[in-house]
Amino acid sequence: MLKFTEEHEWLLVEGDVATVGITAHASEQLGDLVFVELPEEGATFAKGAAAATVESVKAASEVYCPLDGEIVEVNQAIVDDPSLVGSDPEGAAWFFKLKLANPADAAALLDKAAYEALIA
Amino acid sequence: MSAETDLKKTPLHALHLELGARMVPFAGHDMPVQYPAGVLKEHIHTRTAAGLFDVSHMGQVIVKAKSGDNADAARALETLVPVDVLGLAPGRQRYALFTNETGGILDDLMIVNRGDHFFVVVNAACKDADFAHLEKHIGDTCTVTPLPERALVALQGPKAEAALASLAPETAAMKFMDVATVSLVGTDCIVSRSGYSGEDGYEISVPNDKAEALARALLAIDGVMPIGLGARDSLRLEAGLCLYGNDIDTTTTPAEAALNWAIQKVRRTGGARAGGFPGADVVLKGLDEGVSRLRVGLKPEGKAPVRGHTALFADDAGTQKVGEVTSGGFGPTVEGPVAMGYVASEFAATGTTIYAEVRGKYLPVTISALPFITPGYKR
Known about the structure:
Chain A has 120 residues and is of the alpha+beta class. Chain A has one domain (2-103): CATH 2.40.50.100. Chain A is 20% helix and 38% strand. Chain A contains 4 helices and 9 strands; from the N terminus they run E-E-E-H-E-E-E-E-E-H-H-E-H. Chain A has helices at 24-30, 76-80, 84-87, 112-119; strands spanning 2-4, 9-14, 17-22, 33-37, 44-45, 50-56, 60-64, 69-74, 96-100. A 6-stranded antiparallel beta sheet of chain A has the order 1-2-3-9-8-5. In chain A, strands 4-6-7 form a 3-stranded antiparallel beta sheet. Chain B has helices at residues 13-18, 39-48, 70-78, 127-138, 160-165, 208-219, 229-238, 280-289; strands at residues 22-26, 29-34, 50-54, 59-65, 93-99, 105-113, 118-122, 142-146, 150-156, 179-184, 187-192, 201-207, 224-226, 293-300, 311-313, 321-331, 336-344, 353-358, 361-368. The longest helix of chain B is centred in the middle third of the chain and has 12 residues, at 127-138. In chain B, the strands form 4 sheets. A 6-stranded mixed beta sheet of chain B has the order 10-11-12-9-3-13, sandwiched between helices. By secondary structure, chain B is an alpha+beta fold. In chain B, helix 2 (39-48) crosses helix 7. Chain B is globular.
């Protein structure tokens, strides 16, 4: 199940684990990224809490945790090469995997059509 | 004033849109922050080839002595800036500062001796205040004439010389801070060999109605690409150049800002025309006796950019605050984070390690000489 947030994150929900990244639209708005800071594995976040930081040449932006959960894996590849986020934001440049506290909550997030309407 | 419809447009506005720029409000103007290439590529392109910048939002003004003697205009300007204006030769430009009564900086600017008048370029955000300041203080002896009918573009980078020389060969012989009248696209332009990128290059004042023709002529030259305000900021930061409002303002004196080089000997204590500008007692005391804080370069040791307003500490526990970052970001040429800011003088020596508080962590930062890059000025 692919879901989106109004804060421009995408989530691929498989069972009780969601793979989270930022959308192509967000990546385009941010421009070239030069720094990515990811959360620690094992950290827990409430929905809406700042979980990661991305920085372009000009500015820092937060990436918010889309649902309550625990970080079970992070993508070191985007820390090593932040430009990956620009080249493949909705694929190889995922940020972290989140074990959802309440998997059913994912249903209430935006679907692809609703997200595309949001950014249109 | 903040509504987008109130934003002023430069004569190159339509061209920016045509080139696919992302526009942002800046100092009351709708300006290009980047073009489709993006800030990183634009920055690197300027350092390796040539970049064209629209800086028409800046203020241009003519100061002319009512007596007809340009030395009278120089003397009048010297009552407002701690700079040797009388000794500035015709066809030469010099960096200057408007100081206030407490020795703070009202704006930084360029002063050009045009022979029978002075041509002055000031920051966009300060221009109305600067024009009023000039009129109020030297309007009795000088006419102060803003030039809203002129645009300003900057051509910067190692290929700027060849690019401009292809339109006007005589510009190749100009030296850093030389200024000349040059015919470009069929009109007289004021060309100075200067800029705000740390690279060799030119700034060109052109009548509004010829600005787009000039920009198109320059962009048509191999190696010239349009550059937005985003890269303009990262370029000047690597070059160690101050941004007014960030790195210098009414609360910073020239000595604190490490701008001693901008104050020539003749205006300093013991000089033939010492003082005589607003706040001279404070400004000269700072030069003579030193100051308690200094603007320095800051090189974060890790990969994380350290932004403006970040607090700086002597220790990695955040116990003793010793300063604050005023400008910081990623330097594409340095390939890492770069910053500048003010620190207590005892921590200002190059090589000193202090700590920046970023998202609850204390990151080591080394006091670094400015600039971070080797400038390409043609002296």
